[in-house]
């Protein structure tokens, strides 16, 4: 059984390396396309370059993670850099679909500040989430498990408290964009953030009370990725063209 597990893990590692190379080539192609066929606006070029740099960082981190027996600290760093890659790629994609030229704020400045505070807190939530995972049963190598030196229950409670504060801020953003937002896009974007947040919270509490089944942990990670996408989309749509809807 152990040999089968090791063989399976080798296939996963090989697939990960292959996809890393593919993503790197796609990132290079995206930069070339932006440089040749667009107006080379900074909002497109910077995130595209960040994706390429992030892929290189991930390749190095991936090697360190394997060499250190899946130490939870390096695994957490690997995950957080991945979230940064998702954010940069989303920013470039959303920007490419928005009108060129100057775009005015479609919300008051105070709402924009609230959006950035909400996004910063989301970063804290993600970091605390990696601490919870690194302190629990799914951290480290299966044969030589490593754990972060935190009490899993206390870490989970702190994570849950930050999530509740985050939910409150997201609700405030939804209300604010509904009341004073001058674009349907920004209202829809932050409603989607709330939807993903509620789904993520439901999965998080379910996995806590069901002793962290692996399938729910995977869903939780997928929803975390979706949350990053939703937040970046919400931030990008704070500027645009207002409408009457």
From TrEMBL:
<keyword id="KW-0408">Iron</keyword>
<feature type="transmembrane region" description="Helical">
    <location>
        <begin position="192"/>
        <end position="209"/>
    </location>
</feature>
<dbReference type="GO" id="GO:0006784">
    <property type="term" value="P:heme A biosynthetic process"/>
</dbReference>
<keyword id="KW-1003">Cell membrane</keyword>
<dbReference type="GO" id="GO:0016020">
    <property type="term" value="C:membrane"/>
</dbReference>
<comment type="pathway">
    <text>Porphyrin-containing compound metabolism.</text>
</comment>
<feature type="transmembrane region" description="Helical">
    <location>
        <begin position="114"/>
        <end position="136"/>
    </location>
</feature>
<feature type="transmembrane region" description="Helical">
    <location>
        <begin position="215"/>
        <end position="235"/>
    </location>
</feature>
<dbReference type="Pfam" id="PF02628">
    <property type="entry name" value="COX15-CtaA"/>
</dbReference>
<feature type="transmembrane region" description="Helical">
    <location>
        <begin position="76"/>
        <end position="94"/>
    </location>
</feature>
<feature type="transmembrane region" description="Helical">
    <location>
        <begin position="18"/>
        <end position="37"/>
    </location>
</feature>
<dbReference type="GO" id="GO:0046872">
    <property type="term" value="F:metal ion binding"/>
</dbReference>
<dbReference type="GO" id="GO:0016491">
    <property type="term" value="F:oxidoreductase activity"/>
</dbReference>
<feature type="transmembrane region" description="Helical">
    <location>
        <begin position="156"/>
        <end position="180"/>
    </location>
</feature>
<keyword id="KW-0812">Transmembrane</keyword>
<feature type="transmembrane region" description="Helical">
    <location>
        <begin position="44"/>
        <end position="64"/>
    </location>
</feature>
<dbReference type="InterPro" id="IPR050450">
    <property type="entry name" value="COX15/CtaA_HemeA_synthase"/>
</dbReference>
<keyword id="KW-0560">Oxidoreductase</keyword>
<dbReference type="InterPro" id="IPR003780">
    <property type="entry name" value="COX15/CtaA_fam"/>
</dbReference>
<keyword id="KW-0472">Membrane</keyword>
<keyword id="KW-0350">Heme biosynthesis</keyword>
<keyword id="KW-0479">Metal-binding</keyword>
<keyword id="KW-1133">Transmembrane helix</keyword>
<protein>
    <submittedName>
        <fullName>Putative cytochrome c oxidase subunit XV assembly protein</fullName>
    </submittedName>
</protein>
<keyword id="KW-1015">Disulfide bond</keyword>
